[in-house]
Amino acid sequence: MWLNNILETIGNTPLIKLNKLTQDVPGTILAKVDYFNPGNSIKDRMALKMLEVAEQEGKIKPGGTIIECTSGNTGMGLALAAVVKGYKCIFTTTDKQSKEKFDILKAVGAEVIVCPTNVEPDDPQSYYSVARRLAREIPNSYHFNQYDNLANRLAHYETTGPEIWEQTEGKVTHVVCTAGTGGTVTGIAQFLKEKNPHIQIWAVDVYGSLLTKYFRTGEIDMKEVHPYISEGFGEDFVPLNYDMSVIDHFEQVTDKDGAVMARRIAKEEGLFCGYSAGSCLQGLMQLKHKLKKDDVVVCIFHDHGSRYVAKIYNDQWMMERGFLDVKSFKDIVNARQ
Ligand code: PMP
Protein backbone atom coordinates (compact mmCIF):
# COMPACT_ATOMS: atom_id res chain seq x y z
CA MET A 1 0.00 0.00 0.00
CA TRP A 2 1.28 3.46 -0.80
CA LEU A 3 0.12 7.04 -1.01
CA ASN A 4 0.17 8.89 -4.31
CA ASN A 5 2.00 11.94 -2.99
CA ILE A 6 2.90 13.78 0.23
CA LEU A 7 -0.39 15.74 0.24
CA GLU A 8 -2.29 12.55 1.03
CA THR A 9 -0.61 12.48 4.47
CA ILE A 10 -2.34 15.73 5.54
CA GLY A 11 -4.83 15.40 8.40
CA ASN A 12 -5.94 12.45 10.56
CA THR A 13 -3.50 13.56 13.26
CA PRO A 14 -3.46 11.85 16.67
CA LEU A 15 -5.36 12.97 19.74
CA ILE A 16 -3.04 12.38 22.70
CA LYS A 17 -3.97 12.49 26.39
CA LEU A 18 -1.93 14.80 28.58
CA ASN A 19 -1.03 13.07 31.82
CA LYS A 20 1.48 14.87 34.02
CA LEU A 21 1.02 18.57 33.33
CA THR A 22 -2.72 18.45 33.76
CA GLN A 23 -2.90 16.31 36.90
CA ASP A 24 -4.69 19.02 38.87
CA VAL A 25 -7.04 19.94 36.01
CA PRO A 26 -10.53 18.35 36.24
CA GLY A 27 -11.59 16.23 33.24
CA THR A 28 -9.73 14.45 30.47
CA ILE A 29 -7.31 16.78 28.69
CA LEU A 30 -6.41 15.75 25.14
CA ALA A 31 -4.05 17.38 22.66
CA LYS A 32 -4.75 17.37 18.92
CA VAL A 33 -1.13 17.17 17.88
CA ASP A 34 -1.06 18.66 14.42
CA TYR A 35 2.71 18.71 14.06
CA PHE A 36 2.15 15.22 12.63
CA ASN A 37 1.16 16.89 9.35
CA PRO A 38 3.85 16.68 6.62
CA GLY A 39 4.72 20.39 6.90
CA ASN A 40 4.79 19.98 10.71
CA SER A 41 1.73 22.16 11.30
CA ILE A 42 -2.05 22.32 11.18
CA LYS A 43 -1.77 24.92 8.40
CA ASP A 44 -1.15 22.18 5.79
CA ARG A 45 -4.88 21.52 5.95
CA MET A 46 -5.98 25.01 5.00
CA ALA A 47 -3.14 25.57 2.53
CA LEU A 48 -4.27 22.59 0.46
CA LYS A 49 -7.93 23.61 0.76
CA MET A 50 -7.21 27.21 -0.32
CA LEU A 51 -5.31 25.92 -3.38
CA GLU A 52 -8.04 23.42 -4.30
CA VAL A 53 -10.76 26.09 -4.03
CA ALA A 54 -8.69 28.59 -6.04
CA GLU A 55 -8.20 25.96 -8.76
CA GLN A 56 -11.92 25.11 -8.80
CA GLU A 57 -12.80 28.80 -9.08
CA GLY A 58 -10.26 29.25 -11.89
CA LYS A 59 -8.26 31.84 -9.94
CA ILE A 60 -4.95 30.06 -10.57
CA LYS A 61 -3.69 27.58 -13.16
CA PRO A 62 -0.70 25.18 -12.91
CA GLY A 63 2.54 27.02 -13.70
CA GLY A 64 1.16 30.11 -11.93
CA THR A 65 2.52 31.84 -8.84
CA ILE A 66 1.09 31.44 -5.34
CA ILE A 67 1.52 34.64 -3.31
CA GLU A 68 0.85 34.73 0.40
CA CYS A 69 1.58 36.57 3.64
CA THR A 70 2.80 33.85 5.97
CA SER A 71 4.75 33.46 9.15
CA GLY A 72 5.96 30.15 7.86
CA ASN A 73 3.43 27.44 8.55
CA THR A 74 0.93 28.38 5.85
CA GLY A 75 3.88 28.88 3.52
CA MET A 76 5.14 25.37 4.23
CA GLY A 77 1.73 23.89 3.43
CA LEU A 78 1.40 25.95 0.25
CA ALA A 79 4.97 25.14 -0.79
CA LEU A 80 4.39 21.39 -0.45
CA ALA A 81 1.16 21.66 -2.43
CA ALA A 82 2.95 23.81 -5.03
CA VAL A 83 5.72 21.24 -5.52
CA VAL A 84 3.22 18.43 -6.07
CA LYS A 85 0.79 20.43 -8.23
CA GLY A 86 3.33 22.51 -10.19
CA TYR A 87 3.20 26.14 -8.98
CA LYS A 88 5.79 28.77 -7.98
CA CYS A 89 5.55 30.37 -4.53
CA ILE A 90 6.44 33.84 -3.25
CA PHE A 91 5.87 34.50 0.46
CA THR A 92 6.03 37.79 2.33
CA THR A 93 6.73 37.57 6.04
CA THR A 94 7.93 39.73 8.92
CA ASP A 95 11.35 40.16 10.49
CA LYS A 96 9.90 38.93 13.82
CA GLN A 97 9.68 35.33 12.63
CA SER A 98 12.28 32.61 13.22
CA LYS A 99 15.06 32.49 10.59
CA GLU A 100 14.63 28.71 10.54
CA LYS A 101 11.14 29.23 9.15
CA PHE A 102 12.46 31.17 6.14
CA ASP A 103 15.17 28.59 5.46
CA ILE A 104 12.67 25.74 5.59
CA LEU A 105 10.45 27.51 3.05
CA LYS A 106 13.41 28.14 0.75
CA ALA A 107 14.37 24.45 1.06
CA VAL A 108 11.07 23.49 -0.57
CA GLY A 109 11.54 25.95 -3.40
CA ALA A 110 9.75 29.10 -2.23
CA GLU A 111 10.99 32.68 -2.51
CA VAL A 112 10.70 34.60 0.79
CA ILE A 113 10.50 38.40 1.13
CA VAL A 114 11.08 39.68 4.68
CA CYS A 115 9.19 42.89 5.64
CA PRO A 116 9.27 45.04 8.82
CA THR A 117 6.94 44.00 11.70
CA ASN A 118 6.10 47.26 13.40
CA VAL A 119 4.33 49.11 10.58
CA GLU A 120 0.58 49.61 10.07
CA PRO A 121 -1.10 46.93 7.87
CA ASP A 122 -1.82 49.56 5.16
CA ASP A 123 1.79 50.85 5.10
CA PRO A 124 3.29 50.04 1.64
CA GLN A 125 6.15 48.20 3.40
CA SER A 126 3.88 45.87 5.41
CA TYR A 127 3.86 42.24 4.44
CA TYR A 128 0.17 42.54 3.53
CA SER A 129 0.80 45.47 1.15
CA VAL A 130 3.82 43.86 -0.50
CA ALA A 131 1.84 40.65 -1.18
CA ARG A 132 -1.04 42.65 -2.70
CA ARG A 133 1.37 44.61 -4.93
CA LEU A 134 3.13 41.45 -6.18
CA ALA A 135 -0.22 39.85 -7.01
CA ARG A 136 -1.08 42.90 -9.16
CA GLU A 137 2.31 42.89 -10.92
CA ILE A 138 2.93 39.15 -11.62
CA PRO A 139 0.80 37.54 -14.37
CA ASN A 140 -1.07 34.27 -13.51
CA SER A 141 -0.50 34.86 -9.81
CA TYR A 142 -2.99 34.74 -6.97
CA HIS A 143 -2.80 36.23 -3.49
CA PHE A 144 -4.41 33.62 -1.26
CA ASN A 145 -4.97 35.97 1.70
CA GLN A 146 -5.43 33.40 4.44
CA TYR A 147 -6.97 36.07 6.68
CA ASP A 148 -10.06 36.72 4.58
CA ASN A 149 -10.11 33.55 2.43
CA LEU A 150 -12.95 31.44 3.83
CA ALA A 151 -11.42 28.23 2.44
CA ASN A 152 -9.20 28.58 5.53
CA ARG A 153 -11.96 27.94 8.05
CA LEU A 154 -13.66 25.52 5.63
CA ALA A 155 -10.60 23.21 5.88
CA HIS A 156 -11.14 22.92 9.63
CA TYR A 157 -14.92 22.56 9.24
CA GLU A 158 -14.31 19.67 6.84
CA THR A 159 -11.36 17.93 8.53
CA THR A 160 -10.17 19.05 12.00
CA GLY A 161 -13.67 19.40 13.49
CA PRO A 162 -14.93 15.99 12.24
CA GLU A 163 -11.71 14.28 13.38
CA ILE A 164 -12.17 15.67 16.92
CA TRP A 165 -15.81 14.53 16.95
CA GLU A 166 -14.91 11.01 15.78
CA GLN A 167 -11.79 10.62 17.95
CA THR A 168 -13.73 11.56 21.10
CA GLU A 169 -16.80 9.55 19.97
CA GLY A 170 -18.83 12.73 20.31
CA LYS A 171 -17.80 13.18 23.96
CA VAL A 172 -15.82 16.42 23.48
CA THR A 173 -17.12 19.19 25.78
CA HIS A 174 -14.49 21.94 25.25
CA VAL A 175 -12.00 22.98 22.58
CA VAL A 176 -9.13 25.32 23.43
CA CYS A 177 -7.35 26.90 20.45
CA THR A 178 -5.03 29.82 19.80
CA ALA A 179 -6.51 32.32 17.36
CA GLY A 180 -4.75 34.23 14.59
CA THR A 181 -6.53 34.30 11.24
CA GLY A 182 -9.39 32.64 13.15
CA GLY A 183 -9.64 29.82 10.61
CA THR A 184 -8.78 26.98 12.98
CA VAL A 185 -10.99 28.01 15.89
CA THR A 186 -13.95 29.09 13.73
CA GLY A 187 -13.96 26.06 11.41
CA ILE A 188 -13.71 23.60 14.31
CA ALA A 189 -16.38 25.51 16.25
CA GLN A 190 -18.81 25.71 13.33
CA PHE A 191 -18.64 21.95 12.81
CA LEU A 192 -18.80 20.93 16.46
CA LYS A 193 -21.59 23.36 17.38
CA GLU A 194 -23.73 21.82 14.61
CA LYS A 195 -23.17 18.44 16.24
CA ASN A 196 -23.70 19.70 19.80
CA PRO A 197 -24.34 23.40 20.52
CA HIS A 198 -23.30 22.94 24.17
CA ILE A 199 -19.64 22.36 23.30
CA GLN A 200 -17.61 25.27 24.67
CA ILE A 201 -15.07 26.91 22.36
CA TRP A 202 -12.32 28.84 24.12
CA ALA A 203 -10.05 30.95 21.92
CA VAL A 204 -6.60 31.84 23.25
CA ASP A 205 -5.08 35.22 22.41
CA VAL A 206 -1.91 37.08 23.44
CA TYR A 207 -1.53 40.43 25.22
CA GLY A 208 -0.78 42.97 22.48
CA SER A 209 -3.51 41.64 20.16
CA LEU A 210 -6.88 43.38 19.81
CA LEU A 211 -8.95 40.21 19.28
CA THR A 212 -9.97 39.67 22.92
CA LYS A 213 -11.27 43.21 23.37
CA TYR A 214 -13.04 43.00 20.01
CA PHE A 215 -14.73 39.74 21.11
CA ARG A 216 -15.88 41.30 24.39
CA THR A 217 -16.95 44.75 23.18
CA GLY A 218 -17.16 44.70 19.38
CA GLU A 219 -14.70 47.60 19.38
CA ILE A 220 -11.53 47.65 17.24
CA ASP A 221 -9.29 49.33 19.79
CA MET A 222 -5.80 50.06 18.46
CA LYS A 223 -4.75 51.03 22.01
CA GLU A 224 -4.76 47.30 22.78
CA VAL A 225 -2.11 46.70 20.12
CA HIS A 226 1.56 46.52 21.05
CA PRO A 227 4.42 44.32 19.83
CA TYR A 228 4.52 40.84 21.31
CA ILE A 229 6.93 37.94 21.06
CA SER A 230 4.55 34.98 20.72
CA GLU A 231 4.34 33.61 17.17
CA GLY A 232 1.45 32.51 14.97
CA PHE A 233 -1.56 33.98 16.76
CA GLY A 234 -3.05 37.28 17.92
CA GLU A 235 -3.84 40.02 15.37
CA ASP A 236 -3.93 43.79 14.98
CA PHE A 237 -7.12 43.59 12.90
CA VAL A 238 -10.10 41.22 12.67
CA PRO A 239 -9.81 38.80 9.72
CA LEU A 240 -12.99 37.73 7.87
CA ASN A 241 -12.45 34.10 8.91
CA TYR A 242 -13.88 34.89 12.33
CA ASP A 243 -17.42 34.01 13.25
CA MET A 244 -17.41 35.27 16.83
CA SER A 245 -20.90 33.82 17.41
CA VAL A 246 -19.50 30.27 17.60
CA ILE A 247 -16.76 31.22 20.10
CA ASP A 248 -17.70 31.26 23.80
CA HIS A 249 -14.69 32.88 25.43
CA PHE A 250 -11.41 34.63 24.63
CA GLU A 251 -8.49 34.24 27.07
CA GLN A 252 -5.25 36.24 26.86
CA VAL A 253 -1.88 34.86 27.90
CA THR A 254 1.52 36.53 28.28
CA ASP A 255 4.54 35.85 26.07
CA LYS A 256 6.38 34.45 29.09
CA ASP A 257 3.66 32.07 30.28
CA GLY A 258 3.21 30.61 26.78
CA ALA A 259 6.95 30.05 26.32
CA VAL A 260 7.42 28.48 29.75
CA MET A 261 4.46 26.17 29.20
CA ALA A 262 5.73 25.04 25.76
CA ARG A 263 8.99 23.99 27.44
CA ARG A 264 7.04 22.08 30.09
CA ILE A 265 4.96 20.26 27.44
CA ALA A 266 8.21 19.00 25.85
CA LYS A 267 9.80 17.96 29.17
CA GLU A 268 6.75 16.58 30.94
CA GLU A 269 4.68 15.09 28.11
CA GLY A 270 7.34 14.35 25.48
CA LEU A 271 5.51 16.50 22.93
CA PHE A 272 8.02 18.84 21.25
CA CYS A 273 5.58 21.56 20.19
CA GLY A 274 5.73 25.17 19.01
CA TYR A 275 5.22 28.33 21.03
CA SER A 276 1.46 28.57 20.47
CA ALA A 277 0.88 25.08 21.90
CA GLY A 278 2.34 26.40 25.15
CA SER A 279 0.05 29.43 24.99
CA CYS A 280 -2.94 27.18 24.28
CA LEU A 281 -2.31 25.00 27.32
CA GLN A 282 -1.53 28.07 29.45
CA GLY A 283 -4.93 29.48 28.40
CA LEU A 284 -6.56 26.25 29.59
CA MET A 285 -4.68 26.41 32.92
CA GLN A 286 -6.02 29.94 33.47
CA LEU A 287 -9.56 28.59 32.95
CA LYS A 288 -9.30 25.24 34.74
CA HIS A 289 -11.63 26.40 37.54
CA LYS A 290 -14.46 26.26 34.97
CA LEU A 291 -14.00 22.52 34.30
CA LYS A 292 -15.66 19.46 35.86
CA LYS A 293 -14.36 15.90 36.18
CA ASP A 294 -16.42 14.46 33.30
CA ASP A 295 -15.34 17.12 30.82
CA VAL A 296 -13.40 16.10 27.72
CA VAL A 297 -11.18 18.97 26.61
CA VAL A 298 -9.31 19.12 23.30
CA CYS A 299 -6.36 21.52 23.06
CA ILE A 300 -5.10 22.28 19.57
CA PHE A 301 -1.31 22.08 19.28
CA HIS A 302 -0.63 23.82 15.98
CA ASP A 303 3.02 23.12 15.15
CA HIS A 304 6.36 21.48 15.97
CA GLY A 305 9.11 22.73 18.28
CA SER A 306 11.92 22.42 15.72
CA ARG A 307 11.09 25.90 14.37
CA TYR A 308 11.72 27.44 17.79
CA VAL A 309 15.04 25.86 18.82
CA ALA A 310 16.83 29.21 18.61
CA LYS A 311 14.02 30.88 20.60
CA ILE A 312 11.92 29.36 23.39
CA TYR A 313 14.05 26.21 23.49
CA ASN A 314 17.22 28.25 23.91
CA ASP A 315 17.98 29.07 27.58
CA GLN A 316 19.93 32.22 26.72
CA TRP A 317 17.07 33.60 24.60
CA MET A 318 14.66 32.88 27.45
CA MET A 319 16.97 34.53 30.01
CA GLU A 320 17.43 37.67 27.91
CA ARG A 321 13.67 38.22 27.87
CA GLY A 322 13.22 37.51 31.56
CA PHE A 323 11.29 34.33 30.74
CA LEU A 324 13.59 32.04 32.74
CA ASP A 325 14.20 33.14 36.30
CA VAL A 326 17.80 33.35 37.43
CA LYS A 327 17.40 30.62 40.00
CA SER A 328 16.22 28.03 37.48
CA PHE A 329 18.90 29.19 34.99
CA LYS A 330 21.59 28.61 37.65
CA ASP A 331 20.09 25.15 38.30
CA ILE A 332 20.42 24.34 34.58
CA VAL A 333 24.03 25.53 34.47
CA ASN A 334 24.90 23.65 37.66
CA ALA A 335 23.28 20.48 36.37
CA ARG A 336 25.44 20.65 33.25
CA GLN A 337 28.72 21.07 35.14
N1 PMP B 1 -0.25 28.77 16.02
C1 PMP B 1 0.58 28.72 14.98
C2 PMP B 1 1.96 28.17 15.18
C3 PMP B 1 0.17 29.18 13.71
O1 PMP B 1 1.00 29.11 12.66
C4 PMP B 1 -1.13 29.71 13.57
C5 PMP B 1 -1.57 30.25 12.23
N2 PMP B 1 -1.24 31.60 12.03
C6 PMP B 1 -1.98 29.77 14.70
C7 PMP B 1 -1.49 29.26 15.91
C8 PMP B 1 -3.37 30.36 14.65
O2 PMP B 1 -4.23 29.67 13.77
P1 PMP B 1 -5.29 30.44 12.90
O3 PMP B 1 -4.55 31.36 11.98
O4 PMP B 1 -6.05 29.38 12.17
O5 PMP B 1 -6.18 31.22 13.82
From TrEMBL:
Keywords: CBS domain, Pyridoxal phosphate. The keyword Hydrolase does not apply. Its cofactor is pyridoxal 5'-phosphate. One of its GO terms (biological process) is cysteine metabolic process. Belongs to the cysteine synthase/cystathionine beta-synthase family. This is Pyridoxal-phosphate dependent enzyme. It comes from Filimonas effusa. The chain holds residues 1 to 337 of 451 of the full protein.
